[in-house]
Amino acid sequence: MESLATERTVRQQFAAETTYLNTASTGVLPRDAAEAVRTALTEYSTGRPYIKEGFDAVEESRALFARLVGVDVPRVAAGASVAVYAGLLATSLPAGAEVLVVDNDFSSLVNPFVVRADLKVRSVPLPELADAVRPGTDLVAVSAVQSADGRIADLAAVRDAARAHGARTLIDASQAVGWLPLRADDFDYLVAVAYKWLLAPRGAAFLVTPEDRDHISPVFAGWVAGEVPWDSCYGPVTELAHSARRFDESPCLLAYNAARHSLALIDGLGPERIGAHNAALADRFRAGLVELGHQPIPAPGSAIVSVPGLDHLAERLADAEVFLSSRAGNLRASFHLYNTEAEVDRALAALAG
């Protein structure tokens, strides 16, 4: 477990000066990614062209994300947020469609369906999700890992129940991809931001679409969604991209220039190995919490640990440069490839004090 955080590849990329256990909010930017942004800013500020390199970075990032979730590159759209892509799918549903969601799931996934008043949005507790799929359910939308408390959804059960009833599935992998191995082919749609476990800046996100994507209306398609983008700058786009690129947002090139380096690091180390490292640190933290008399929310195998009623301690811990977060009444810690056992013990000592 320790070898991952201390091996040369990781040590060369990270040199945190704090005890940072808050990747579930924002990941730490690797050095190569940070340097790429600095170089791009210099190019911008001195009037040198950067557009081609920026768009090349989008394509490299798209390909790396596709490999991480096990799909072909043409199935991946590149954008900026989960909310935009959930909204895209919400607009493609017929009036009266039933969308099944989880109680208190992340708002960016849930709210785009709720604001369409002509949809039927039904919410159930996470453990009941698969059993709640029924004839007439059109879409099941759920986070692979719950943001507030780290619980991991039984995605296989959800997939099987949805298929049995003819429903489509939308998985928000923002709190999972990068450490929890996922096969996007198991679902109809998968969406994720890259600024958490994929260690990119804000402004990069991905949507995996099925092969039969004609039912999705590209309602925000601009020039980048054209089959030949530079020939699609004026007037109606006469030929949309034949791939999921038709759902691209005009990209934040700085974010993607960094993202290609961050994604390459995750891909090189492997989600399986990273996940084992993260889960072992989380288990160590859970055991320490119990010794201190606290009961974390059960979330076996998760890289996220949440403790009810201790959210008020986040500010005190931050003063000691131990960074966790306050979420939904919980004190939430999250562990990633750059964290060590020593940092777990430091956080526990800060809590004990």
Summarize the structure.
It is built from 12 helices and 12 strands.
Describe this protein's structure.
This protein has 353 residues and is α/β, with parallel strands linked by helices. It is built from twelve helices and twelve strands. It has a seven-stranded mixed beta sheet with strand order 2-8-7-6-5-3-4, sandwiched between helices. Strands 9-12-11 form a three-stranded antiparallel beta sheet. A two-stranded parallel ribbon has the order 1-10. Strand 11 (325-327) and strand 12 (330-334) form a beta hairpin. The radius of gyration is 21 Å and the shape is globular. The chain starts with a helix and ends with a helix.
| Shape, principal axes of CA atoms | globular
Q: Give the terminus-to-terminus CA distance.
A: 27 Å
- Number of DSSP strand runs: 12
- Could you say which structural class the secondary elements and strand pairing correspond to? alpha/beta
Which properties best describe this structure?
single chain; 353 residues; alpha/beta; three-stranded antiparallel β-sheet; 12 strands; 38% helix; globular
Topology:
Layout: H1 2-6, H2 8-13, E1 19-20, H3 31-45, H4 51-69, E2 76-79, H5 82-91, E3 98-102, H6 107-114, E4 120-124, H7 129-132, E5 137-143, H8 155-164, E6 168-172, E7 189-193, E8 205-208, H9 253-269, H10 271-291, E9 304-308, H11 314-319, E10 322-323, E11 325-327, E12 330-334, H12 341-352
Parallel strand pairs: 1-10, 3-4, 3-5, 5-6, 6-7
Antiparallel strand pairs: 2-8, 7-8, 9-12, 11-12
